[in-house]
Amino acid sequence: MEFNEKLQFFRKKSGLTQEQLAEKLNISRTAVSKWESGRGFPNIEALKNISKVFQVPIDDLLSGDELITIAERDNAANVDKAYSLNFGVLDLLSLAFIFLPLYGQEVGGHIRSVNLLHYNEVSDVRVVHFILLTTLAALGVIEMLVQFFDNKKALSTARLLSILWHSVAVLFFSLTREPYVTFFSLVLLLSKILLLFRKSLKK
Q1: Three-class SS of residue 17?
Q2: What are phi and psi of 179, to 5 degrees?
Q3: How far apart are CA 42 and CA 20, in angstroms?
Q4: Which helix (H) or strand (E) element contains residue 167?
Q5: Angstrom distance (rounded) from CA 110 to CA 193
Q6: Angstrom distance (rounded) from CA 113 to CA 103
Q7: Which of 17, 28, 116, 136 would be 94's cystine partner, CB 3.0–4.6 Å?
Q8: What CA–CA distances, in Å, run from 131 to 57, 98, 116, 169, 176?
Q9: What is the pTM of this model?
Q10: Helix, strand, coil percentages in the chain from 3-state DSSP, rounded to 5
Q11: Would you call 21 helix, strand, or coil by DSSP?
Q12: pLDDT of 14-43, one tens digit each?
């Protein structure tokens, strides 16, 4: 028997409805229905819970091939979450550029390095710098949160927005002749592109 048939068999043997099983597993009835119709498999954690509910070993629920399929899927999901976490951290690091002395300011005929908050002259350019950096950091937070909702489309969209916004930021920093923040922002941008490249190679 396949997993979906075994799940139905053990559920009915235990006298449980799909709703009752879902409640015991702390999941939706839709998930149980999906598994029983053969349209998917539970993750490893859910399998452990199913095993406890029916008091049978996991080996009795799955064939070897099914177990390998689930393990590979869970591993791929964990790798994707790790990449998303790294991607988000790189964007959050952009927030540090507000506080680091990366901006040149003329003081008494000399150029002194100051951070964005201590820049004496408040101008539209500085406001744009601040907006670019805080938006990048906000995108980083979104990328780290989206991964917990298992929404690949939203995650891909967030990553694309991050790359595009970061590219705009690097271009703007370059045009405003801020070499230090341009350089470090470019390093972060290239790091994100490298992460995406490495991820694509693992597929």
Answers
A1: coil
A2: -65, -35
A3: 17
A4: helix 152-175
A5: 37
A6: 5
A7: 136
A8: 55, 10, 11, 10, 15
A9: 0.63
A10: 75, 5, 20
A11: helix
A12: 899 999 998 988 888 898 898 888 887 787
